[in-house]
Amino acid sequence: MARPKRLLIDQQPHLINYQAINQRNAFSDNQDYQQYLHWLNKEALIHNCILHAYLLLPKQIYLVLEPSCGEDISKLMQALGRRYVRYLNLKEKLSGTLWKDRFKASPLQSDFWLKNTLHYLVYKPVTEGLCETPKDYPWSSYRKYVFQQLSYLQDLKLPPNPSIRSQLEVAISRNLPLP
User: Fold this and answer.
1) Residue 152 has pLDDT above 60, yes or no
2) Domain Transposase IS200-like, which positions (predicted)?
């Protein structure tokens, strides 16, 4: 039986989520995070997807991507997955897949869902115990939007989207993570 087709909507932001298999770390050092972001940036440009936000956790990845054509997300994630898994397997002298399942994609069809998703992504590292405040976590797009800086990867092209920035500022102004 064929897998059900994902609902991917043209020119609509989507929350993308990947989880590593068997609690394996998807990232073991700064070089891994930087390499993933570098390839993510490249593939987003190639596949006509706007990267609105990202959060890279040791065992999970969250992206907010907006494709010009819905299927571009699948093409981007497939190309990125091939590159990164090959890189990590060579580095760690392993073989096989890194990801638990295929990626999950959820269209964010209103500003309400976009704002709440961004709020969730901003506070996820805090709730996971990885940092004290969102600005302390280096592997999210929070710093780029709110402070206009990205210390680890200078060439990442996030769109200068005032709407996304204001959504993040609203999320942060709540000052507490969502339950």
Assistant:
1) no
2) 13-124
Between 18 and 167, residue with greater pLDDT: 18
Name the pTM for this structure.
Answer: 0.84
State the Cα angle at 82 between 55 and 95, rounded to 5°.
Answer: 100
**Cα separation of 139 and 59, whole Å?**
12
Residues 35 and 41: their CA atoms lie apart, in Å, by 10
* 176 Rama sector, left if φ>0, alpha if ψ -120 to 50, beta otherwise: beta
Length of the chain: 179
Order across the sheet with 49-56: list the strands.
49-56, 60-67, 14-19, 104-107
Given pLDDT bands bounded at 50, 70 and 90, which one contains residue 179? very low
3-state secondary structure at position 35: helix
Task: Classify domain 14-173 at the CATH class level.
Answer: alpha beta
Q: What is the pLDDT of residue 163?
A: 67
Under DSSP, the state recorded for 3 is: P
* Sequence spans of domains, the chain: 14-173
The alpha helices in the chain, defined as continuous H runs, are 30-46, 71-92, 111-127, 142-147, 162-173
